[in-house]
Q: What sequence folds into this?
């Protein structure tokens, strides 16, 4: 049982690390988009900016979808880790008593 619990704890840590890397990747994409938008200057027309946004709307939608997925995954992992901690605390209490 203990080995299995360790494996589950390890897997949850791996999933949290993966989630963190995914957030970092999405954050980098958003910074890149922001930098590109701020690179437009006075000589760029409103239509050029709209064209850029239109060309990248699918990327923005993909980022939004991935953020929702990551949020859901993170919530599941946090609930699971809470359950692991509660289980661990019960085991410790039973050993002490």
A:
């Amino acid at each position: 049982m203990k080995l299995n619990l360790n494996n589950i704890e390890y897997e949850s840590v791996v999933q949290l690390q993966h989630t963190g890397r995914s957030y970092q990747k999405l954050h980098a994409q958003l910074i890149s988009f922001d930098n590109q938008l701020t690179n437009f200057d006075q000589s760029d027309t409103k239509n050029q900016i709209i064209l850029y946004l239109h060309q990248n709307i699918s990327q923005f939608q993909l980022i939004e979808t991935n953020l929702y997925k990551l949020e859901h995954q993170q919530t599941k992992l946090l609930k699971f880790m809470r359950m692991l901690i509660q289980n661990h605390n019960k085991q410790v209490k039973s050993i002490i008593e």
